[in-house]
């Protein structure tokens, strides 16, 4: 009997035009959009049903509760949390205009987003609007000007209620569903004007975000921790650090996250990392082999990472030498968010099979590299999920 390969995705799915328009209007004046909450709820219910119809095994709300007011948006997974956190103030500085910071041996620091090493190496391409590189529209980011606190209780309960309604209507079990939430390390990449050190700021975020993790898991859902920073930070340090320095820098973020997850059953946690989802060269990305053991330290049952991205597809081989701990599973990206080409089901099956033969088909959930929402056209996103499921069905016949 064939071992069925389960399917999922990284979280964000394309919003409807109606939801994007309503969200944009709410940014100007929430009172001008009567019926928004009902529209959001109905949109989530419809989306979960569409995932069921496609054959997705492990669905979510498409991150619809994380406000996206533009069809192209690379940051909703991240900046949603700032509206749920006290102690922050908008600084007026756009993300790409932050001043550059330089590191010293033994004291590595994040530089500005506009001063990434990949961006410097391909500066002409990054600044050419016709190059095909996409990073999304500029966005203002806040600074911490006082003690931070979680204020998103109402929003997260709304997200929970909406996805539960969708799961029940589509015939999923509540335990099949998940909601995305930000990691302390990624949250702490904004400017800190209050805490005495970067480490203190990260641990403060761990206490804040724990409230969201608890709300999601106590509702019977799985929480997906989104933390591109674990891999992506490497490109954002100038000059390039040693791998040993970077691992020590990252270890603090791992420990803070595990602190935030304390007591939460691992089977209700999955962890996502990537090398940043912008469409660019990525030649300064850190090899996954340099941090995979750190990722496996995180108190989660599942680990989702980019594996269809052409800069990282070859890294499936690290599982020849990396032992997946008992009771854990991997959720590799099998279709990419970074190309409009829809992968053939045979290619999808081949990619799945590589992982399944190394860690066991029961320990593989076929997924997307990153969120599809805000990055590719909805029609193409739908086709990619269709081919993901078709390829998983084909791969299942091979075991």
TrEMBL record:
Cobalamin-independent methionine synthase MetE C-terminal/archaeal domain residues: 198-392
Biological process annotations from GO: methionine biosynthetic process
Q: Which Pfam families match?
A: Meth_synt_2 (PF01717)
**Gene Ontology terms for molecular function:** 5-methyltetrahydropteroyltriglutamate-homocysteine S-methyltransferase activity; zinc ion binding
- PANTHER family assigned: METHIONINE SYNTHASE, SYNTHASE, VITAMIN-B12 INDEPENDENT, PUTATIVE (AFU_ORTHOLOGUE AFUA_3G12060)-RELATED
The molecule here is called Methionine synthase
Q: Which organism is it from?
A: Sediminivirga luteola
């Amino acid at each position: 009997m064939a071992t069925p390969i389960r399917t999922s995705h990284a979280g964000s799915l394309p919003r409807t035009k109606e939801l994007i328009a309503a969200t944009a209007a709410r940014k100007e004046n929430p009172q001008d959009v009567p019926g928004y909450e009902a529209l959001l709820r109905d949109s989530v219910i419809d989306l979960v049903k569409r995932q069921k119809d496609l054959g997705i095994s492990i669905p979510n709300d498409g991150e619809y509760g994380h406000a996206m007011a533009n069809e192209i948006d690379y940051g909703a997974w991240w900046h949603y949390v700032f509206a749920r956190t006290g102690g922050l103030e908008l600084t007026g500085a756009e993300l790409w205009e932050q001043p550059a910071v330089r590191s010293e041996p033994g004291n590595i620091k994040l530089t500005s987003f506009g001063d990434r090493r990949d961006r410097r190496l391909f500066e002409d391409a990054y600044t050419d609007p016709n190059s095909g590189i996409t990073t999304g529209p500029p966005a203002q980011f806040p600074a911490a000007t006082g003690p931070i606190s979680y204020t998103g209780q109402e929003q997260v309960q709304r997200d929970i209620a909406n996805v539960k309604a969708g799961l029940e209507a589509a015939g999923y079990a509540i335990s099949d569903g998940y909601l995305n939430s930000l990691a302390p390390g990624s949250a702490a990449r904004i400017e800190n004007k209050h805490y005495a050190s970067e480490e203190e700021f990260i641990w403060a975020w761990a206490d804040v975000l724990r409230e969201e993790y608890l709300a999601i898991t106590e509702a019977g859902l799985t929480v997906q921790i989104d933390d591109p920073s674990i891999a992506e930070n490497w490109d954002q340090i100038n000059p390039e650090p040693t791998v040993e320095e970077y691992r020590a820098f990252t270890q603090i973020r791992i420990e803070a996250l595990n602190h935030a997850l304390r007591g939460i059953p691992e089977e209700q946690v999955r962890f996502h990392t990537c090398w940043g989802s912008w469409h660019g060269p990525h030649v300064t990305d850190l090899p996954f082999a340099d941090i995979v053991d750190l990722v496996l330290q995180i108190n989660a049952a599942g680990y989702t990472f980019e594996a269809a991205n052409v800069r990282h597809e070859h890294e499936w081989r690290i599982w020849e030498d990396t032992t997946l701990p008992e009771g854990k599973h991997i959720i590799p990206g099998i279709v990419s968010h970074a190309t409009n080409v829809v992968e053939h089901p045979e290619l999808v099956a081949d990619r799945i099979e590589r992982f399944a033969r190394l860690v066991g088909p029961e320990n593989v959930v076929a997924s997307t590299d990153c969120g599809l929402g805000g990055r590719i056209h909805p029609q193409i996103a739908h086709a990619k999920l269709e081919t993901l499921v078709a390829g998983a069905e084909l791969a299942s016949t091979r075991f």
